[in-house]
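Field log, afternoon session.

UNIT: design team B
ACTIVITY: writing a sequence onto a fixed backbone
BACKBONE:
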């Protein structure tokens, strides 16, 4: 490797290119975060990062996919093509950040390894409302990571240009997978239609530009007349300026016809680097130079100048009556061919016509035409600023609904009360500091996606002092225990027992209590399904959230007909619209719903 590859030499163009991209990325994320906080003050930092990194990566992917066809439609966009791989690597880093925070948020700190949890989620491929859209994102991320990891020219040379190009064409597969990932995730989260409209417009732009570029190039694939000996007329010699190339079609293959040093040569149109169009290049220092990244080939032999070893096919050329004739049979790559000599009379007008600013040649590391390039690129970058700002604001506004819970992360308090272990561990407090003389209950949980476990074992009925973090939503409270509670003196009065409220039928969805009450915003809906499953599996209480006609929420702790927590028996119905008929009970500020899980009725 060290004999053929060295660190990329940074230059002014690279610094400007990457500086503009990084600055734009940071500003986009900052605007997204500020808008999210303004519109949804209860949103958590983790949710902002998950959404912000994801939408930024998606926008950057759209930019990457649009650069190629834009360059085919107008070569003045070529400065954006140079170093496009930098955009791809940055986009992959953002996507990895999005995936990392999402996996930590939804799958880590549970009773299974995060990746196992991700791959064994409770989705159902037969229903769009339960489709495991996370797997679509994972598949797309694997493709994007593979492309980023093989972006260096070492891999291009090792794999061969054709294989490398085919591998990197998988970006379109990744794009389609990401469209499905975002669309299904947004649909399941009941997000604003703004996101769906934006996705549709983005896809229309990407594929519309591809179609437009294809239609633009299609006439060039129609060959000129040819004779029975295999010679193809590719145009007039006088129309090809000195030091220029032109793309021509031989019917099956495209070739680059080059005018240099008083002669006409013909080589393959495909650059060995990344398949760039050599017919759109120019002769620089005696070599035909690819407009994409500056790879060079000697027109007469198709060989790259030493010490480089790339080589392309050459073709026989002759001039008859001022017309350029190319034989359709290629020579082996690197085969020298005598150029077809031109008559002394040269059409100077054609040369002058070929030097217009519209055809200004650009290679990223070549300083020529810098002013022309700047005059074309800068106004278009300025026009993109309000567009990107609008996308950031719209994306922040398009997020799904958030709950109003609070998790006092990093803040611990001291609590005193009576431990109640069944059916769910709770801390009972007499009066709870208000005018109500009855008992108030705060559910007890452990760190992460776990119940309190051994921290409360054997303490049933004991008065304790404990240190923990408060989680609350409306009148419902929960405490995340930081250490095993300390026993205090026995209390004279036992907490009250549950009161039977009678039969009841409710519709709603199953969530895990900890995230729903405030640890995660939002802590409900299909997008939170995998996290809720891990939380319930780890011993956190399953809660049934029902709504009345006025939109008010009621939270019922789920138990079976024997009063035992339903636990893992509700895995298949988490975040699924349900109707449950059972008996309701009240104990202080807690509501319970007792019913056999086999009687839960799924709703459309």
């Amino acid at each position: 490797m060290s004999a053929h590859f060295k660190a990329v030499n940074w230059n002014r163009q690279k610094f400007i290119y990457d500086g503009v991209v990084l600055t734009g990325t940071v500003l986009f994320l900052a605007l997204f975060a500020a808008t999210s906080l303004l519109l949804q003050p209860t949103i958590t930092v983790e949710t902002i990062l998950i959404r912000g990194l994801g939408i930024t990566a998606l926008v950057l992917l759209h930019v990457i996919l649009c650069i190629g066809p834009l360059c085919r439609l107008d070569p003045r966009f070529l400065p954006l093509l140079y170093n496009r791989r930098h955009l791809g690597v940055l986009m992959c880093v953002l996507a990895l950040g999005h995936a990392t925070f999402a996996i930590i948020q939804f799958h880590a700190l549970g009773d299974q390894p995060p990746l196992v949890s991700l791959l064994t989620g409770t989705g159902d491929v037969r229903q769009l409302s339960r489709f495991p859209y996370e797997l679509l994102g994972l598949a797309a991320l694997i493709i994007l990571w593979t492309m980023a990891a093989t972006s260096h020219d070492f891999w291009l040379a090792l794999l061969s240009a054709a294989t490398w190009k085919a591998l990197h064409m998988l970006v379109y597969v990744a794009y389609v997978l990401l469209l499905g990932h975002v669309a299904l995730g947004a649909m399941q989260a009941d997000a604003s239609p703004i996101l769906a409209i934006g996705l549709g417009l983005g896809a229309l732009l990407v594929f519309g530009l591809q179609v437009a570029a294809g239609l633009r190039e299609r006439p060039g694939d129609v060959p000129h007349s040819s004779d029975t000996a295999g010679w193809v007329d590719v145009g007039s010699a006088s129309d090809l300026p000195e030091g220029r190339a032109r793309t021509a079609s031989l019917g099956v293959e495209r070739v680059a016809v080059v005018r240099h040093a008083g002669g006409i040569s013909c080589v393959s149109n495909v650059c060995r680097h990344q398949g760039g169009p050599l017919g759109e290049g120019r002769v620089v220092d005696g070599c035909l130079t690819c407009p994409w990244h500056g790879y060079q080939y000697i027109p007469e032999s198709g060989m790259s100048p030493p010490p480089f070893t790339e080589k392309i096919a050459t073709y026989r050329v002759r001039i008859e009556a001022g017309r350029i004739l190319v034989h359709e049979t290629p020579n082996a790559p690197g085969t020298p061919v005598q150029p077809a000599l031109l008559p002394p009379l040269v059409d100077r007008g054609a040369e002058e016509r070929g030097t217009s600013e519209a055809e200004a040649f650009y290679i990223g590391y070549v300083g020529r035409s810098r002013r022309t390039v700047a005059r074309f690129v800068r106004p278009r970058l300025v026009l993109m600023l309000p567009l990107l700002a609008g996308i950031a604001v719209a994306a922040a506004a398009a997020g799904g609904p958030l709950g109003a819970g609070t998790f006092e992360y990093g803040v611990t308090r001291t609590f005193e009360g009576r431990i109640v272990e069944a059916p769910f561990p709770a801390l009972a407090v007499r009066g709870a500091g208000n005018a109500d003389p009855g008992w108030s209950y705060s559910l007890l949980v452990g760190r992460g996606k776990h119940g309190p476990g051994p921290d409360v074992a054997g303490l049933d009925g004991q008065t304790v002092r404990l240190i923990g973090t408060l989680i609350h939503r409306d009148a419902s409270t929960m405490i995340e225990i930081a250490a095993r509670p300390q026993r205090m003196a026995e209390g004279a009065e036992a907490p009250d027992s549950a009161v039977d409220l009678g039969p009841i039928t409710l519709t709603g969805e199953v969530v895990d209590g900890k995230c729903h009450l405030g640890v995660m915003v939002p802590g409900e809906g299909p997008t939170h399904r995998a996290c809720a499953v891990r939380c319930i599996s780890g011993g956190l209480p399953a809660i049934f959230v029902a709504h009345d006609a006025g939109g008010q929420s009621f939270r019922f702790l789920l138990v079976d007909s024997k009063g035992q927590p339903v636990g893992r028996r509700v895995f298949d119905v988490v975040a699924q619209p349900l109707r449950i008929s059972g008996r309701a009970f009240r104990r202080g500020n807690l509501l319970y719903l007792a019913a056999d899980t086999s009687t839960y009725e799924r709703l459309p």
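LOG NOTE: The chain has 14 helices and 24 strands.
NEXT ACTIVITY: expression trials, pending approval
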